[in-house]
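anyone else get weird line breaks when pasting these?? whatever heres mine. first is seq + tokens for prot A
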Amino acid sequence: MKAAHNVTFWRYADLTGLELGLISNSAHVFPRHYHDYYAISCMEHGASYCLRRGDEATCVQTGGLALINPGQVHTGGWPGGQPITYRMFYVDAGIMRAAAQDLTQRPDGWPEFTALVARDPVAWAGLQRLAAVAPAAREPLARQSALCTALGTLLLGHAQVRPAAGPGREPKAVAIVRDVLAADLAAPVTLDDLARAAGLSRYHLLRVFKKATGLTPHAYRTQLRIEHAKVLLRAGRAPADVAQDCGFADQAHFANRFRHFTGATPGQYAAA
């Protein structure tokens, strides 16, 4: 673990699928984005909006939790005043599903947080204990027990199990475009390419895709590139190589986009 500037990340071999972060004294503003995993935040100092629609913002205050489901498009930012300090817990969807199955004894379905912002001192304490135990514990059992307790409290108090998504839940054109965008992240793709693949006009494609995903195809592909870059950085790849493999114009462009979406530089993220 290494600290750099105001961002620190932790990852553990015995807690595969969990990433912890501490962001201190930050004034960073995140664009609209999503995650393929659960993102849980403990606001330790200040206040931040975590979803914005038009001129409305849902804010998490000091002592509050932000509970973000996979695929939920959201923003995050500092609304002014003092910079904010918060902890992040990024949890793989499979880990959360296994925890829900243990609690409910239901083999199907996925847990879904029912509110974006919550205030729960017990759940807060469980997450803070996980944040304290994970870096300090010498035995995996301590970390794993803290994780199980923290997730169990959150799921029991703030989630419901929804049915697993079946076929036909989104327009076929959107599924086709998702596949095209993900096929080769370094290859150039035009709007005409996507429209031809989907069998729609360019305007219709943009409208249908944004309605289904909350993002434009370009923003969606940028997210795919950022998430793939995280995987490569965790594997020890050099930022310059990651930039090339993920389709960024150069290393400077990659670093700028990476920080815009994650709040950290590639070097800060890879240092955990």
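and prot B, same format (seq, then tokens)
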Amino acid sequence: MSLVLRRLALGDEADTIAAVTEMAAEGGHWSYRYRPDLPWADYVALVRGWEEGRDLPGDFVANADLVADVDGVVVGRSSLRFELNDFLRTLGGHIGYAVRPQFRGRGYAKEILRQSVELLRDRGISPALVTCDDDNLASARVIEANGGVLEGIVPGVAHIPKRRYWLS
């Protein structure tokens, strides 16, 4: 598989806007922090600054928003959190990931998560906490396929329980 996790780039604008639209049509989200009000170059610079903890929104922690690139096409994304605040420690975890709807079922989510765990391990973060909605069986299978060990199920937001997994 030729999937590569990489930093957001200036050439990713069209794919990112398409991904935001596609995910919204499903009732989901591409990124909680997408800023369509900013010129694209400013947004890319902002996202890159978050890796060093600069200009973080609200109670966010230092993080890397990466895109999953397959042959020049953004098929998904990963958000790596380098520390855990109270929310992330309970419900969000170290890693958030998504695959654009038309690219699902090809193993991309499994590879995005695998590479995400490696990148965190390279930064000295292991094990990594990953969560998913209790009813998101596809995500649970991806996490388990990557060796995730279920710690338990906790109450989540809007009465949707969350599964908490640890990956080494």
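btw re prot B: The mean pLDDT is 94. The longest helix spans residues 108-122.
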